[in-house]
Design brief:
Helix content: 25-40%
Strand content: 25-35%
Radius of gyration: 19 Å
Largest sheet: 5 strands, antiparallel
Oligomer: single chain
CATH class of the largest domain: Alpha Beta
Length: about 260
């Protein structure tokens, strides 16, 4: 049997100093064979050599590529994160259904096909509108509207996930998970680029929520966005393999988890 290795399938080349760049260098330093592929360039997995004992790590792939990986998962390939889990997390309505059915706290929501339907709901109450497909441009595909202030023209294409507006303390608590580690980052909500994010020690209740998301979705490396309202914390989004910006220990935690998956930890 060949030595354990990691194959990274990325949507684009990692920039210096970003999470995948740091993870790549750390794995190499630990004598783990690593290959980096950009499968979108060919739109198929191609004929690259896949070592027998490789762990496939992916980030930023489109649904077409994830569907191909899901078939490989059925065939026995090992992944982090599971392609099936990643597809689930991209579909915001399916994700929220899964979390709600598991008893986890999520906002009330509905999926609507047309912007006219969103406008009708938005004239009755304050809402947060998101693209139902949470693939790209997550920050730009969100509209927060106090009652009757939605734009007349759709700012992005549907279908739409329309959530209740949760009055909160003005902070978005991001919980970043890498295996058994959970890190906290606080950002202003709605986003304010002039105010820097700050790390924080998440309370056990929030850590438990983040870990429960992992259990219910099958994700191993992910982020959970939480707002604190009058009825406690609400999970408002889940991100597959986030950038972990602002978390200095993140790449070490990711490497540790991958080494455990390779049974080298």
């Amino acid at each position: 049997m060949m030595s354990p290795s990691v194959t990274c399938l990325l949507g684009k080349s990692p920039k210096p100093g970003t999470i995948f760049d740091l993870v790549h260098d750390s794995l190499i330093a630990r004598k783990v064979a690593v290959q980096v592929l950009l499968p979108h360039n060919s739109r198929t997995l191609g004929t690259e050599l896949w070592p027998e004992n490789t762990l496939v790590v992916h980030r930023g792939l489109n649904k077409e590529m994830l569907d191909q990986l899901a078939q490989k998962e059925v065939e026995g390939w090992r992944f982090c994160n599971s392609p099936t889990s990643s597809v689930l997390a991209r579909d915001r309505s399916a994700l929220m259904c899964r979390l709600r059915n598991a008893g986890l706290p999520v906002p009330k929501w509905q999926r609507l096909p047309d912007w006219a339907d969103v406008i009708r709901i938005g004239t009755e109450r304050s809402v947060v509108v998101k693209a139902a497909d949470g693939t790209v441009g997550r920050g730009t595909q969100v509209v927060i509207a106090i009652r009757n202030t939605l734009p007349k023209a759709a700012p992005f294409s549907g279908p739409y996930l329309v959530e209740e507006y949760i009055k909160n303390d003005g902070l978005d608590r991001k919980l970043y998970v890498a295996g058994s580690r959970c890190f906290g980052l606080i950002k202003p909500w709605p986003r304010n680029p002039d105010v820097p994010a700050q790390s924080f020690d998440a309370l056990p209740e929030l850590v438990g929520l983040a870990m429960a998301v992992g259990v219910e979705t099958g994700l191993e490396i992910f982020g959970v966005d939480v707002l604190l309202g009058a009825q406690g914390p609400k999970i408002v989004d889940v991100n597959v393999f986030p950038g972990f910006r602002g978390i200095d220990e993140a790449h070490s935690a990711v490497v540790h988890h991958l080494l455990e998956r390779l049974e080298l930890g």
